[in-house]
Amino acid sequence: MKRTLITILQYVIFLGLGIWIVYHMLHELSPKEETDLVTAIESINAWYLIPISVVGFLSNFFRAERWRYLLETTGTKPSLTNTTLAVLIGYITNLAIPRAGEVAKCTVLAKYEKIPAHKMIGTIVAERAFDILCLLVIAVAAFVLQLKTISDYVGDKMHLLGEKILRHQGVLFSILALVAILIVALIMVYRRHRETKVGKFIKELAHGVMSIIHMKKRWPFMGYTILIWFMYLLQIYIGLVSMPATQHLSMLAALVVLVYGSVGMIVTPGGIGMYTLLVAQILGVYNIPDVPAQAFGWIAWAVPTCLIIIMGVASLLLIHPLKRKNDAQAAVDTK
Length: 335
Known about the structure:
By secondary structure, the protein is mainly alpha-helical.
């Protein structure tokens, strides 16, 4: 009961934070800026919503296929259709209740594929752990590839550090040192706080990553992981190209936006408020004016969110009739 109340309290606090950010961002706009914001949003080329939608669906499709590789390690092999629908239902559930999507997709797949739900829990932990690792790697890559640009954003001290790193051509060494320090720090924290939530989280993270490294089909798994993150990147890049104020930005700029946006999605439920705020701020680094930057932030948040809702609702409506049709076909084939 106490744990449930704490979870509810955390949800209310971070949802409240997101709503406050939305109110603050819109309230600070002058009447002229409000008009400019609407104009910037209307300036988007609507035809680009088609490839954005296709790429958004493909990211979920590849995620479902990747999950099937993990499920194979438990001795199960669900259909790609049901797995994809379960993933989409999981995402729409996450919009309503953060982190409940993992439970929802396991429940759905357990019901329609007759797989014990407890068998899938380990795969969810492994998948989440690997995604966290991927985000860290992408964040480091974005920092290295856009070092000078980002250093201007974080201040003069970081700029001097970047100049020093580039001058001595020690970028690779610095990354390796940073990773080594991070690993040592995690080990030290785990040893001292083994039985705490932090210790258990680190243990689950390590176990999840190692289970993927030792799985038989790890290379196809890695391939789908690359495809998933590339779809996320491509979705951002197409969005940038679709808007006149941002269409000159490169794929590397899209990579930085992806990292900042991902952080925003983690902080508040569904990324409400925080996603737009962080994306708008990082676009300022690329000399995008405040209002167009904010406009892109709203578009980049709203379009994928609407896609998740549409695909999630469609999945909820489709999964039962498809199961019934497949069962009927299986009965006919048996006869």
